[in-house]
Amino acid sequence: MTETSLGQATEKRDIVRGSDGAMKRLLGMREMGLLCIILLVCVVMSLASPYFLTWSNFRTIFLSFSVEGIVVIGMTMLLIVGGLDLSVGAVVCFAMVVAGKLFLLGINPWLASAGGVASAAAIGAAMGVFVVKVGLSHFIASLAAMVIVRGACLLVTQGTPLSLFTLPPEFKFVGQGSIGGVPLVVIIFLVLAVVFDFLLRRATRFRAIFYTGSNERAAEYSGIRTKRVIFWVTVLCSTLAGLSGVIFMARFGSATPQFGVGMELNVIAAAVIGGASLKGGQGSIFGAVLGVALLSLVTSSLILLDVSVYLQDMIKGFILLAAVSFDHLMSKRAGREG
Amino acid sequence: MPSLLELEGIAKRFGPVAALQDVSFDLRAGEIHALAGENGAGKSTTMRIVDGIIQPDAGQIRIDGKPVRIRSPLEAQALGIGFVHQEIALCPDVSVAENIFMAATAASRAPLMNFAGMERKARAALAELTDVDPGAKVGSLSISNQQLVEIAKALALDARILILDEPTSALTEAETRKLFAIVHRLKAKGLGIIHITHRMAEIFDHCDRVTVFRDGRYIDCLQVDGTTPEQVVNRMVGRTISKLYPPKLNRAAGRPLIEVEGLCDTHLLDDISFTLREGEILGIGGLIGAGRSELAKAVCGLGPRRAGRIRLDGQDVSIPDFATALDHGVVYVSEDRKAEGLFLDLSIRSNVSALRLGQVSTRLGLIDRSAEEAQAQRLGKKLRLKAASMANPPSVLSGGNQQKVALARMFSVNPRVVFLDEPTRGVDVGAKSEIHIILRDLARSGVGVIVISSELPELIGLADRILVLHEGRLSGEIGPDRMTEEAIIALASGLKPPVAAQKLEGTEQ
Ligand SMILES: Nc1ncnc2c1ncn2[C@@H]1O[C@H](COP(=O)(O)OP(=O)(O)OP(=O)(O)O)[C@@H](O)[C@H]1O
Ligand SMILES: [Mg+2]
Fold first, then answer.
1. I want to staple B51 with a disulfide (CB 3.0 to 4.6 A). Which of B83, B168, B249, B334 is the partner?
2. Residue to test with chain A: of B75, B133, B155, B180, most A Cβ within 10 A
3. Among B392, B412, B432, where does a domain finish?
4. Is B45 in the same domain as B97?
5. Quick one: DSSP state of residue A160?
């Protein structure tokens, strides 16, 4: 008799402990919360400015974050696996500069772009080797890469922007054209976001990214080749940065060696606002997309409201702080209830 | 018929430390084979070699008589080896179901995840062990439930060889019983099971053979039938140790050291009052989740406290945080040494000195290395800590020796009242009885000792008085004359103690 009641008592506690479908809902909650904030900003802005609710304004906002958004996708995956990449801004620029230089040397722009993306992937692979084989942290490896690659951009261009107005129109179309009124870059970004969000949620191979980031040792003991996972996500992040670089080139028709300075912080901020954790194991592409959308929305709203540029940066910083603190407090409370 | 798993001449060094020398072992299909040995004897290291986590320097592993090389856990899984790790190895941000089937996911060829199917299978796999929601994140579970998930994970591999490295040290009696029901069924199905434990009762109740290691060497393999626990312990420690608990307090306890009145916290503890008197050891029993650790933490300023008074030596004190508790000489030693007890990557001596750095500092506020070293040496010796050097981090120590470092920290403060949460979890028999003696001496010298333990024999053997908690309330107190496992279990599960029930019967007659 004692035995059964003992069992029952234990079970009762465990039900209480295990009742965290709440945790699961919370994951969706981060995204819901962001959506609500975005809607709220939209409502307020549409009251504040007659220009806000216009097609051209939305087009501008989407355009402003789409290409950078491609970098955010890669960064989010890297954060989930427990890594970090400070070199993305420099790598975006490097892919742009390499592709531009190759084009100026007379190579077909598509091939030149492939070369730019490949060079970005190579930088990612080099960082991956230093992280996985040598054992450096992502922070150090990518900090070094950032400085080196930025230097390389200056070296390749000799410090002056490459003027690429001779790019053929069908290539510029990638960065400047629209299909049915929607800019092609927005379409590219959304397709990539949907594909990677789906892969990360559902694909067997991509789940290993969460496992490795959450507890590398446990993942390894479960038969996951964690070093390989970390290596390939590092490469993927740089590759997406490279892709974004050549799309920027097509959009602007030029390649500047100072392009993308400070971009890495914006990108990390967007991913973190979207729910990625710097400790690894947490995050989603959908959330990160909302994060980057919110940041751009706020920037363009502030411009629309004629707010000083200096204030804009401060406000963005406060948004980052508020979003992350709010989430932290909510999950703490949910954890206590659960 | 060849053995299922054979090890021969296995050797492994970690730098200057020879962890294993010429170790052999053999496991048959359809047996539960206990592996016993003191802390640091090399049990876990041997099993990590079998699982391919580390590679041996010499020796051979044979499965079904065929020599194999196991280069990674992945290869071990392919050979049918399942491993429940001593230190829980789960991904906290991921659901229970995904953790259980992580190996299957890693090996799966299906392009997409089937979460619904996975949760269904996980529910079935967990059914006999516990009731946790397969969709819950592992990080939100208690240690004991995490341990059960870790077990379910190994069972889900459909292994032929199942290695259990101290699976019961974080479980209560009820859960341990469920685990052994499963293990016996697997044995009947023809699996070979290796069970590492420091609890003699588990070896003698459930196992068929027992292999003993000492100091990284194979000592003996005995048939459990026809062997006595004393023989096993003798081979483990190479000397005789008394399995008796130190004598209890034989006089009335002295003045009150700490009095707690009407303690409540925000979510569990409800109106708890107790007094600890000089000279006595107070035990706290209860099921997992009853609030034992929460109580200790609340008193020590580590947990939320809503109401309640604490008096030390008759004086009201307020303990808003653990730093104040330490100033008053009130110490809590956590049950979770990895997450809450130790700085795993700092040196042992910095771990020991951390609670009271002033003791090993010069007048200028600089840390005096040699004083720190001396302190670590002195306390390490007292606890028979087995470590190559006090400059090593606890992360390279065996589980039991990590526990000793956690205890050494407590001694460094010259405490007045100590709360010890599962102080002998994962500690070998010899060291365990030494810890018991040390705690008794501590109590005799006037320090208040409060011990939380899930091991009922330990609670009964050590404590002069036992408080039992049930769902955050004090469900009863058991004095020295009525201490039985049944009495504790009854109170812990919220029933009336059998003694009271008998009295009731008596009055009716
Ligand atoms: N990575 C490592 N580096 C250095 N020494 C190690 C390492 N792993 C284990 N050791 C040493 O090897 C010895 C055996 O440790 P092991 O963990 O196998 O002991 P155990 O028998 O499992 O003990 P316990 O009962 O405490 O779990 C110990 O002295 C330990 O300090
Ligand atoms: Mg061990």
1. B83
2. B133
3. B412
4. yes
5. S
User: Is the residue at B194 inside a domain?
Assistant: yes
The residue out of B352, B379, B412 marking a domain boundary is: B412
Q: How confident is residue A338, by pLDDT bands cut at 50, 70 and 90?
A: very low
Q: Among residues A292, A225, A233, which one has the least CA distance to residue A82?
A: A233
- Does residue B355 lie within any of the structural domains? yes
- The DSSP bridge partners found for residue B364 are none
Range of the domain at B423: 243-329+415-509
Predicted local distance difference test score (pLDDT) of residue B259: 93
Q: What is the pLDDT of residues B170-184, one digit of tens each?
A: 887 788 888 999 999
Pick the residue from chain B with its C-alpha nearest to A276: B93
ipTM above 0.90, yes or no: no
Q: Which two tokens stand for residue A247?
A: 């799309």
Considering the domain boundaries, does residue B147 fall inside one? yes
Asked if A138 and A83 count as a contact pair (C-beta separation under 8 A), the reply is yes
**Cα gap B405→B388, rounded to integer Å:** 13
Shortest Cα–Cα distance, A13 to chain B (Å): 6
pTM, 2 dp = 0.79
Give the CA distances from residue A335 to residues A26, B295, B318, in Å, rounded to whole numbers and listed in that order. Answer: 10, 19, 27
Q: At what angle do helices A226-252 and A109-129 cross, to 10 degrees?
A: 150
Rounded CA separation B75/B182 (Å) = 25
Task: Find out whether B397 and B206 touch, Cβ atoms under 8 Å.
Answer: no
B220, B262: one domain: no
Bridge partners (DSSP) of residue A254 are A163
Together in a domain, B278 and B172 = no
pLDDT band at A16 (very low <50, low <70, confident <90, very high): very low
CA of B425 relative to ligand 2 center, distance in Å: 12
User: What's the burial of A225, exposed, middle or buried (CB within 10 Å: 0-12/13-18/19+)?
Assistant: middle
For residues B190-194, give the mean pLDDT.
94
Residue B338 is assigned to a structural domain of this protein = no
Collect all residues with Cβ–Cβ distance below 8 Å to A161 and sequence separation of at least 6.
Answer: A254, A255, A256, A257
Residue A126, phi then psi, degrees to nearest 5: -65, -45
Domain count, chain B: 3
Q: Domain of B465: which CATH number? A: 3.40.50.300
Q: Quick check: B467 and B477 in contact, CB under 8 A?
A: yes
Closest CA to A237 of A126, A112, A161, A134: A126
Judge if B165 and B230 occupy the same domain.
yes
Q: What is the mean pLDDT of residues B136-159?
A: 87
C-alpha of residue B42 to centroid of ligand 1, in Å: 6
By DSSP bridging, strand B58-63 and strand B66-68 are antiparallel
| Among chain B residues, CA nearest to A283 | B93
Instruction: For residues B155 and B299, state if they share a domain.
Output: no
Q: Report the Cα–Cα distance between both ends of chain B, in Å, rounded.
A: 64
Contact A95, A237 (CB under 8 A): no
In the structure encoding, which two tokens stand for residue B275, read together?
A: 């007094």
Q: In terms of domains, do B289 and B353 share one?
A: no
Examine the domain organization and report whether B304 and B439 are in the same domain: yes
Least trusted range by pLDDT, from A22-26, A48-52, A87-91, A307-311 = A22-26
The C-alpha atoms of residue B407 and residue B419 are separated, in whole angstroms, by 11
> Rg of chain B's alpha carbons, rounded to an integer?
24
SS3 content of chain B, % helix, strand, coil (to 5): 40, 25, 40
Q: Name residues contacting ligand 1 (CB within 6 A).
A: B 14, 17, 19, 37, 39-45, 86, 396-401, 426, 428
Which residues in chain B have their CB less than 8 angstroms from residue A331's CB? Answer: none
What residue type is assigned to position A272 of the chain? V
Q: Are residues B208 and B285 in the same domain?
A: no
Query: Can you state the percent helix, strand and coil of chain A, rounding each to 5?
Result: 80, 5, 20
Average predicted confidence (pLDDT) for chain B? 87
Determine the CATH number of domain A25-37+55-337. Answer: 1.10.3470
Q: How many CB pairs under 8 A join A and B?
A: 154
Give pLDDT, residue A333.
Answer: 58
